Amino acid sequence: xxPSWRNSIRIGLCxxxxxxxxxxxxxxxxxxxxxxxxxxxxxxxxxxxxxLGSLEKLLQARAPRAADAGVVxxxxxxxxxxxEANGALAGREEWSAYAAHHFEKTYGAAARDWDIRVxxxxxxxxxxxxxxxxxxxEALSAAFGSGPARLRSVQPYLMAAFNGALPAxxxxxxxxxxxxxxxxxxxxxxxxxxxxxxxxxxxxxxREELPQILEREGALLAAEEPCWSVLVSSFEPxxxxxxxGYRFTALPAVLREDPSYAMVCA
Length: 266
Description:
Elements: E1 8-13, E2 17-23, E3 31-38, H1 49-62, E4 67-73, E5 78-83, H2 91-107, E6 114-118, E7 127-133, H3 134-144, E8 149-156, H4 157-165, E9 174-180, E10 183-190, E11 193-201, H5 206-220, E12 229-234, E13 241-243, E14 246-250
Helix pairs in contact: 1-3
């Protein structure tokens, strides 16, 4: 892997906050700065609008120098869907059209204004699709404008966490749990393939309730046998250990002393 010769800044765009961590250049980037800008959530059709205002303040105050920027989007702003394997489809365009049809069937005409992406997978495996408001992507691009920080990537939290979890994956079958204020996403992989992705509300007692939640999710999937390995990325402290038969592993993070920065670890 080639080292980056520019500083980088990772930004987590959430419903109630904008989190950032700025890193120096090099193969092993050094943390230079970090912080959280509060957001006052608005009950509007575009719930990310309030976060964009805080992002602009962040860029003005804490990104004064040239840097490559990557934005990670909260699960509040992204819709996920698991598409069944379909041997009749070939190529990205056909899969994208297939995903767009299913998003519109599920969410209605609003889905026509979403940017939809589908992961690659084997012919006999389901594929994960995600949808993001095109207006959000356009607003992100405009927020960076001609400033010193250049927007290089935009990722859903699920993909960022999954890629960051790769070193911790000791098994090919596991639950991936992503928690943030008010929201929890549960993804199940079996033998390296996605089998389920579901988003749900998360209350204050989500850690205590998680074993029962996973048990119910497994029952809904009518799985032949439970999946006991669970990887957790959370904005709150999580203990690594066993509960109700489930083996919980908190995903490692550069900023593990403060899990509020789970979305922006390099």
